[in-house]
Amino acid sequence: MTISTNDNENPSYVSRSLKVIRGALADALTLVRICLTPVIMFVIIKAWSSKPSDTEGYFSLNLELVLLASILFLIAVMTDILDDFIGGNTTAVFRKLVWFDDIADSLLIIGTLLSLIWVTGQANLLHWSFAVPVLVLFIRDIVIGLFKSLKFSKSKFQETRLGDIKNALAMFAVCLLVAAPWLSNIVDSFTVGRVEDSIEIYNAPSAIIWNIGLAVLWLAAILSVFSGKKLVENQTDVNEGVST
């Protein structure tokens, strides 16, 4: 009888190698998401930039660039879904950038929202109903980030389920807000009846997509407050348990 001593044929070795590969792939997807964020911000700002032919106080909108920003943001969201699927709990220990995953999500969401704040402000369209939830999400991520750096360094950090739902809602809201200009045109096209109606609609496109995105963003902002509070309380309990 021949006994193989080749580690490459050991099932545990093969399983570990596959987890290392999956961990590296998940890290690569996280890096892609980080790199896409400034690109998305640039495309959004470029899409809303005024042109020499624009009249004073008027900003024309490049719908092709808005569509490109929507596609890039959707790709970034897919990298988040895929790196969570590929680099799950059994693979997390083999990842080098697992600690950067949540940061990448925050950078994507907040960075894109800040670019929308900038362009709507430049176009004199910024309203408190949009600025407030963005500010809440921004402050929450800064506070939790500082708390993690001060308190979580000595123990394992776990985002709450409520926090995961908040991230999902925030990403969905941003998808709608970024895509609102061209999605609104599609929605309006179904409501056009007479020629006179089409002229009226395209002179004043509906805000239904933007308003839906805004409502979801408010929900994400409210959840962010509760999830942040619960996160701090849970970690405080863990630290107290360790100290005792």
Largest sheet: none
Overall CATH class: Mainly Alpha
Can you give the helix content as a percent range?
over 70%
Helix-strand string: HHHHHHH
CATH architecture tag: Up-down Bundle
Alpha-carbon distance between the two ends = 56 Å
CATH overall fold name = Four Helix Bundle (Hemerythrin (Met), subunit A)
Low-confidence segments, given as residue ranges, are 1-5, 152-156, 198-203
Number of strands: 0
Q: Which structural class should the secondary elements be placed in?
A: mainly alpha
Number of domains: 1
Round the Cα radius of gyration to an integer and report it: 23 Å
Average pLDDT, all residues: 78
Strand content: under 5%
What's the tally of helices?
7
Describe the overall structure.
By secondary structure, the chain is mainly α. The chain has a single domain (12-230), classed as Up-down Bundle (Four Helix Bundle (Hemerythrin (Met), subunit A)). It is 75% helix and 0% strand. The chain has seven helices and no strands. Residues 1-5, 152-156 and 198-203 have low confidence and may be disordered.
In short:
The protein is mostly helical and 244 residues long. 75% of the residues lie in helices and 0% in strands. It is globular and about 65 Å long.
Provide key terms for this protein:
244 residues, Four Helix Bundle (Hemerythrin (Met), subunit A), 7 helices, mainly alpha
How does the SSE layout of this entry go?
Elements: H1 11-47, H2 63-86, H3 101-122, H4 128-151, H5 161-191, H6 195-203, H7 208-243
Helix pairs in contact: 1-2, 1-3, 2-5, 3-4, 3-5, 4-7, 5-7
